[in-house]
Amino acid sequence: MNLRTILTTVVVLIVALVGTVWLGRGNGDLEPTTPARPAADPDDDRPKIAAKGPYPKAVVEKPRYNFGEMAVGQSLSHKFILKNEGEVPLEVKKGNTTCKCTLSEMKDNTVAPGKSIEIELTWTPKAPQEHFGQTATIFTNDPENKELKLQIEGTANNLISFSGDMMGTAHWSLPTMESDEPVSYTGSIHTKYMDEFKITGIESDRAGLTATFKPLTPEELKEEDTKTGYSIEVTADPTKFPLGGFTERLTVKTDIPNDLEPTESHADHKHPEGHDHKHEHQPPGDRTFVIQVSGNHTGPIRIVPTFGVYWNPQTMVLNLGEFSAKEGKEVMLSMFVEGTELPLEIVDQQVIPDFLKFELKKDDSFQSKTKQRYELKFAVPPELPAVSFGRTNLAKVKLKTNHPNAKVIEFRVQFISL
């Protein structure tokens, strides 16, 4: 290779190298690379801890407080005392909380050496809890206590308690109504969380179900371990009830506020300025409570099912079970009647659905001076379309009779034909 060729090759290589460098710089200028910003440090917003002492010293003597028992809807508060026992100002900042947390006023969120602030935690339980615990986190610039955990705990119960309480609901059972004489049950409503309250009225949607009330005696209050309450006597008039089981509602109206005002855990507390810490406004309320009253009106009627027939005397429900729609089903029951010498007659009847067949036949062979026996037949005819009558849409047979103490008899029938 001659000298001229070598020089030409070197020049070409140099030009190519310069072009490559220039193109690389140009692309960089068109799309400059932006360095990624570091993610925000969660500690950036906390009080800064000095690199060296002297340091503040955050002290809370009792960081946990137990309210004991309190009522659902009742607000209780407790004030924790946070003291700075260090040599320089203590900086504080409220962190995460599961309850209401309030810090007393301070200058620039700092607590001077030897001084203290109050941190108030307030909790209002919304449902009964065997044990609750609520916390608040306080951040500081004390290197030994960068995070202070304050906790309140306790047990939350229903504000009002009843005798016969089941899962927070009052269920009262009346004696069985076997004649036309009224029957009664006496229960109680009481509370250990209020010094007093008033019942302003008791209402019932069922004619024949009434209630009266009076304050519990000191002996009764002691027996119930409660502060105040009332005994309530519920009376049912059998002449106003159809035969069978029933469940009715009594609505108890009171003067208890719908929202209970917060209560201090320490009495006669004063603000740092010297003002009494009191809630001047109590919202008006007319809180109501519901009592479920159940009973069974058998009257002069007794129903006895034959073998294999499912009959519930409390609800007057006859369960025919599942059967073939093509074959249908028929069952028999015995009915014993007292309280009249005249044969039982059906004055009027209502049957739903209309294809359900019902027959009442007197057993003249039955011998008794006080009772009469009748055969009851319920039948679903064969060759009907498949149908279901369950708990929410029971079939019904309602009879009006000439019996003075059993003017209305209502049977309910449950079945599935396939």
Automatic annotation (TrEMBL):
Regions of compositional bias (Basic and acidic residues) in chain numbering: 263-284
Gene3D superfamilies: Immunoglobulins
InterPro entries referenced in this protein's UniProt entry, alphabetically: DUF1573, Ig-like_fold
Transmembrane segment boundaries: none
Disordered: annotated segments: 27-51, 257-286
PANTHER family per the UniProt record, alphabetical: LIPOPROTEIN-RELATED, SIGNAL PEPTIDE PROTEIN
Full protein name: DUF1573 domain-containing protein
